[in-house]
Write a structure and sequence with these properties.
This protein has 166 residues and is α+β, with helices and mostly antiparallel strands. The protein is 51% helix and 16% strand. It contains seven helices and four strands. A four-stranded antiparallel beta sheet has the order 1-2-4-3. The radius of gyration is 16 Å and the shape is globular.
C-alpha cells in the first residue's frame, strides 16, 4: 500500500513504546561501535560485520521473492511505519522507496554526542544492515537523504539492478 503522506505517530502509545525500544537499541549500537573503534577495529571492519548481519536478515527474516512489491510488504511493517513515521512514496516492480521522518537511532546517538560527522558515519555504517539484506536479493540500496546526515528525513531507495545488454 502506497501512502501519500507520512503519518505522525507522536500520540500513539504503541508507537512511543516501540520507539523507546528502538532508542535503547540505538544506545547499544553506539556503545558497541564506540568500543569496537576504541579496541582498534576499523570502520570498514564494523561495516562488514553489520553487512553480514543484514545478509542473515535477508535470508531469514524477509520473504524470499523476486517481487520487490512483496518484499516491501514484509519490510515496511506497521510497527516500522509507526517507529519511523515512515511511508512508501514509490513502489513499482523495479523500485521501492522508503521515506522516514523520524529516526530513534539518531535520537539515541545524539544523547551521547553532538559530533555530526560521527553520527553521519555511524548512520551510514548502520545502513549496512539493509545493504546486506538487499545483497541477498541481488538488489541495490541507495541513500538519497538521511536524518543522520542532517537531511531532515531519510529517502532509502531499494531497486533491482538493471540487466546489462550484451
Amino acid at each position: 500500500m502506497i501512502k501519500n503522506q507520512a503519518e505522525n505517530f507522536n500520540d500513539d502509545r504503541e508507537a512511543l513504546e516501540l520507539r523507546a525500544a528502538s532508542i535503547n537499541r540505538g544506545k547499544w549500537v553506539y556503545q558497541v561501535v564506540r568500543h569496537a573503534l576504541d579496541a582498534g577495529m576499523s570502520w570498514d571492519e564494523i561495516r562488514e560485520a553489520i553487512h553480514r548481519a543484514g545478509a542473515y536478515k535477508g535470508y531469514h527474516e524477509f520473504p524470499r521473492t523476486t517481487d520487490l512489491k512483496e518484499f516491501a510488504r514484509g519490510f515496511a511493517t506497521q510497527d516500522l511505519t509507526k517507529v519511523n513515521d515512515g511511508r512508501i512514496p514509490v513502489l513499482t516492480d523495479e523500485e521501492f522507496i522508503w521515506e522516514v521522518h523520524y529516526c530513534p537511532m539518531v535520537e539515541a546517538w545524539m544523547s551521547y554526542t553532538d559530533d555530526e560527522e560521527f553520527i553521519s558515519k555511524l548512520c551510514d555504517v548502520c545502513m549496512e544492515i539493509d545493504r546486506g539484506t538487499m545483497s541477498t536479493y541481488g538488489w541495490e540500496l541507495d541513500l538519497k537523504e538521511t536524518i543522520g546526515r542532517g537531511d531532515g528525513r531519510c529517502m532509502i531507495c531499494m531497486k533491482k539492478k538493471l540487466e546489462k545488454a550484451n
